[in-house]
Amino acid sequence: MATFLYKIGRLAFRRRHFVALIWVALLTLAGVGAASAPAAGNTSFSIPGTEAQKAFDLLEHRFPGASADGATARMVFKAPGGHKMTDAGQKATVEKTVKELSTGSEVASVADPYTGHAVSKDGTVAYASVKYKVSGMELEDDSRTALKNAAQHARDAGLTVEIGGDALNAAPGSGSTEVIGIAMAAVVLVITFGSLLAAGLPLLTAIIGVGIGVSTVTALAHALDLGTTTSTLASMIGLAVGIDYALFIVSRYRGELAEGHSREEAAGRAVGTAGSAVVFAGLTVVIALVGLSVVNIPMLTKMGIAAAGTVVIAVLIALTLIPALLGYAGRKVRPAGQKSRLLGGGRAAKKPARPNMGTRWASFVVRRPIAVLLLGVIGLGAAAVPAASLELGLPDDGSQPVSTTQRRAYDLLSEGFGPGFNGPLLVVVDAKGSHDPKAAFHEVTDRIKGLKDVVTVTPPAPNQAGDTATITVIPNSKPSSATTEDLVHAIRDAGDGIKAKTDAEVLVTGSTAMNIDVSQKLNDALFPYLALVVGLAFLLLIVVFRSVLVPLKAALGFLLSVLAALGAVVAVFQWGWLSGLMGVEQTGPVMSMMPIFMVGVVFGLAMDYEVFLVTRMREAYVHGEQPSQAVVTGFRHGARVVTAAAVIMIAVFSGFIGSSESMIKMIGFGLAIAVFFDAFVVRMAIVPAVLALLGRRAWWLPKWLDRALPNVDVEGEGLRALSSTDGREDERELVRT
Description:
62% of the residues lie in helices and 7% in strands. By secondary structure, it is an alpha+beta fold. Strands 6, 7, 8, 9 and 10 form a five-stranded antiparallel β-sheet that branches.
């Protein structure tokens, strides 16, 4: 592989005009496609195989035209002090507001609080339910404006009015900190390379890659039912790995220049060696992201595939566009160790160069491997302790910041009707196979009334055919509580006995039941997913390192870092530690998909650092150095650039902590802290300590397996046989292949 990529690098350097033109054309094509594509429509959230989804699908079939997936809004009214919503003046204001809401072209129905029994027992709180014909993503801005205006008119009349539901949901904003993250990445690159031009290349190519990836996602959003979080994740991952992969190529190029190679030869060797590591590092990230499809949650699958696509683009850009741009840069990109004049280059050295920080740190670890290993493991173990208290759930209006109208509406409904009112359960009774559907409906109602934690059970509401009915159950506890989850399971357990007695099937759905089913599905899929992704990557790393123990160490180190990162997420988002600093206004359960998502993304990123750092060590070992000296050599050449890559990735991910979307905020923080733990504790401390303790045994591989594995030559051993003047022959051979 190194030889093939070497030829790619030299060809791209020599034919830079053609390569640059191809990438500019792809960026233009993707941009035009995104601009001309229809706006994304309904972004469905389906969970195949769950009871809640089965009930939802049944409602779509048995209650046609009911707009089961339409947006909803609850306009909550509270009377001023000393008054009640049943007073004549307050009642007139509410009825006027209901009439105003009914005039919208997208409004399907509006429920009057006074005819729909939607006034609290003490008479201080009432609400009007608004049902729309289209989903929240399809809702026109005019409809949202009309909803807000109606609320304001009621406020002007003296009422406290707040709006809940999904009708006001809009695309999340990432905040100004995303730009700050990119700016921090630029500063790190300048410090690393000592050159503005060399620092600008990774940023430029990463932005081009993200532009192509996100534009493609936008162009396909309507056709493939992609949501806003899909493009956000694609940009997050694509920007981080795009900068890192380009960073490694440029860094190796400058190192090859320092060894005296011509610029074309240096570009070829950089792509042949560091490019090989980029390919395998990218493969591990792609495996982890595409592997999310095994969870069988369409939204998660689409997010993973879209992000994997941006990673593939980042790899291709690093292998082709980077050497092409290096050709354009010429002598402006200096050999390693030289700075531009603007940043202090050209000055006479006052004293002999001392070993760099990576060399000094690796020498220390090699001398004290047991102490460093114990300190790293104990530190990560302590950070992982909060993960034992992990509570999973999906966000609702109760997790919104207290400054939002959705959260204030949630609190008003809890105050007037009880905490369970914000999470009603919708029980669907399928009595098509029953000989007496009406009796089955009443049997279900009576059984549910006898269960614990039930406040209200509405009468059955059958469809026109009379074979299916819906029953609304109001729990006594808030939607995210364990008591409400127990009630859902109790209703389902009671349904088994009802089916045996009446041949009617009882299904529980609604947002609360859907959240419970999603959490269970993700929990059940975590270990199979972990086994699949780690297993495939383990086999890939055996091929790369030609070792059994090194990939095993890499996997175990990853588990430590991801557990520590989950512990940090629990401490901040569930316990509230440093919540003010992170902009977390409301603590609560950790998002259900966070553990499995972190496993997928963090594993891929962790293997990036493993491949980049340890391949340098293996390269030194293969070239004859002692195992302990190979560790030091690997750090001398790789520690600075791996550190820069980790700081850049942390900066990019931290930029998403400023998002207004709680899911994006949590993902940004989780990935940033996971990269910190993995890069600076696992890869920089635990890995060299373990390799120093193992010695030659670290590179042990059974002879039969050594013969069976393909030789991918990540170390670039085959490049030694190549002459620096055979570029034309390389080009002809590449064209033939």
